[in-house]
Amino acid sequence: MLPGVQSVPLTALRHPTVSTLLDDHRALLAELLDGLGSPLHIVLPEVFEENITALRQAFAETGADVDILFAKKANKADCFVRSAAALGVGIDAASTAELVKALAGGVPGHRIGISGPEKDDTLHALAVQHDCLVAVDSISELRRLAATARLAHRQVRVLLRARTTIQPGSRFGMAAAERSAAVSLCLELADHVSCRGFSFHLNGYSPEERAMAANEMIEHCLDARWRGALSAELVDIGGGLPMRYVDPQLWDEFIQQNEPAHYHGNKTSRGFHFYPYGGMPPTQAVRTIMNHPVDGDESLSAKAARNAIRFIVEPGRSLLDQAGFTVFRVQQVEDRRDTDGYAIITVAGNSLSLCEQWFNTDYLPDPLLMSAQSLADKVFPACVAGSTCLENDMVTWRKIRFPRPARPGDHLVYLNTAGYHSDFLESRFHDTALPLKAVLRLGDAAPRWRLDGI
Questions:
Q1: How far apart are CA 288 and CA 169, in angstroms?
Q2: pTM for this entry
């Protein structure tokens, strides 16, 4: 074992479509990178569509009645909106721009949910005009939204976002007294506001906690009906479905052996807040949530069905599982093995093109080194840096045990980056262009590609 280098590889799981592209169509990927620039995001709508089908099937197996809204914030690519529209899936939008893109992509307004705290009047007006379902975060927002609907001579459908007993300190949603007052206000303003149910924000990926929060919302619906809000029939369980990037056993071994020496600059592992990369698949999480026992032995889905409650789910990352990857060109290699025990690979691009920096963490699945040169296999420990002048511009802080030395012109492929990783924090720092997205479909013949954009 090399000193200061982590001993557990975190080999990324691969969808068959991804394997086919990397194994059989490497020349095409190289041409796209040469022509479109580094880094380049490859997005795969056919995998996204498979994920929608699988998630629908998982809900159906539990007996749950559910509407799926794709959380647009997870990836800005227009191709995913088009796929959602074609399959009858809605969109969760949290800004005017996201709502406009959802409508332009063919998703009708009645299939669009509007989320986010204290939304502005422009977003309210557009949502009212297109019959979107608006999740309201406070009494003040509810009053503003009702005024907008009154001016438009319309009735707006709303969900009241409530705080949960599991996370009562959340900055999102209404506490018990405000929630009760909001139901009363909906009844008072019934000509312009229709209370359709309740939603919540839950931080984390625990299926059990999400099931308990959903059960609370069912009780809120029943209470609202008793008070006269007879249309309260929806419970929005949000997103937060976990996803699996690497084998769970590898992940457990990594967590047990993880230490600061495994990272550039001995960055302390306690300073990182890792995503659970070895988590359960989304479909398993759905079954766990819907089959969770509430009020004795009755499952959540059974209780919902008994009370004519329908669910809304807003997956983002989990619908994008394996639906894209990112390719960087190696720009320079600084070999520090004689002094520091590892090299620094600098790529054409920066950490904001592929990062988890907003959670002060590292994207952990091992990148793949693709080289046109025939080099002997020899372990090459290296971390990966961006090409900006910032000390913290590290695409990968962790020292990766690459199977061969890297050279300028080689390619690094980061797998499974479509969910948040590819464009959440992208930046034009140094006046560089934003990375492009190439949409690929395999089909029955050679892969076909186009630049993303409606």
A1: 25
A2: 0.95
CATH of span 16-44+322-445: 2.40.37.10
Q: Are 205 and 168 in contact (CB under 8 A)?
A: no
pLDDT 10s digits, 394-433: 999 999 999 999 999 999 999 999 999 888 777 777 778 8
Pairing of strands 112-114, 90-93: parallel
Could you state, in order of their start, the residue ranges of all structural domains in the chain? 16-44+322-445, 45-244+281-317
- Expressed in percent and rounded to 5, the helix, strand and coil fractions of the chain are 35, 25, 40
Distance, in Å, from the CA atom of 379 to the CA atom of 1, rounded to the nearest integer, reads: 10
Q: Where are the beta strands (DSSP E) in 268-316?
A: 293-294, 298-299, 310-313
Quote the DSSP letter at residue 250. Answer: H
Residue 279, pLDDT > 90, answer yes
Beta-strand pair 436-441/448-451? antiparallel
In sequence order, what are the residues at sequence separation of 6 or more whose Cβ sits closer than 8 angstroms to the Cβ of residue 416?
A: 12, 13, 245, 321, 322, 324, 325, 365
Domain 45-244+281-317 fold: TIM Barrel (3.20.20)
Reported as a single tens digit per residue, the pLDDT across 319-335 is 999 999 999 999 999 98
Cβ neighbours of residue 53 closer than 8 Å, sequence gap 6 or more = 87
